[in-house]
Amino acid sequence: MTARQRSWIKPAAIGALVLALAGVGYAGFGQAEQAPQVTFISIAGDKISTADLRGKVVMVNFWATSCTTCVKEMPAMVDTYNKFKGQGLEFVAIAMQYDPPNYVLNFTETRKLPFTVALDAGGDIAKSFGDVTLTPTTFVIGKDGSILKRYVGEPDFKEVHAILQKALAAS
């Protein structure tokens, strides 16, 4: 192979790589990740599946009573729920597998949490949502079941409210 023949190989290979990556990016464009099909069991004993919540905007918050950020953000979670529940927002707070059920029940009752609180006793729900291990982790799920946003750590509630307003207004 001559030097002249080799001179075009590198740019051609780079061009092919760019086109391949662009194709992969384009193929995935607009296809949002779907929330997993799971069933929550609330501390009241009610069974609620993600299929039951289809057609509604849902926030799913993984938390623990031992998580200081979770405890700190909970009043803002309550405020967010109260602000948007009349527009159709559903909210499920899922206590992590390691959280003692009596602590969760006590926290829920003393703080008068107005939304559904569920226990993830086997850790299966956290695994289904992408193996959630860090708390707090919050998902905003659209009416079509797609995950609109995932927050690890305390979310920017101004941003959360903007996402919720848009999602709740969508038909």
From TrEMBL:
<keyword id="KW-0575">Peroxidase</keyword>
<dbReference type="Pfam" id="PF08534">
    <property type="entry name" value="Redoxin"/>
</dbReference>
<dbReference type="InterPro" id="IPR013740">
    <property type="entry name" value="Redoxin"/>
</dbReference>
<dbReference type="InterPro" id="IPR013766">
    <property type="entry name" value="Thioredoxin_domain"/>
</dbReference>
<feature type="domain" description="Thioredoxin">
    <location>
        <begin position="29"/>
        <end position="169"/>
    </location>
</feature>
<dbReference type="GO" id="GO:0140824">
    <property type="term" value="F:thioredoxin-dependent peroxiredoxin activity"/>
</dbReference>
<keyword id="KW-0560">Oxidoreductase</keyword>
<dbReference type="InterPro" id="IPR050553">
    <property type="entry name" value="Thioredoxin_ResA/DsbE_sf"/>
</dbReference>
<dbReference type="InterPro" id="IPR036249">
    <property type="entry name" value="Thioredoxin-like_sf"/>
</dbReference>
<protein>
    <submittedName>
        <fullName>Peroxiredoxin family protein</fullName>
        <ecNumber>1.11.1.24</ecNumber>
    </submittedName>
</protein>
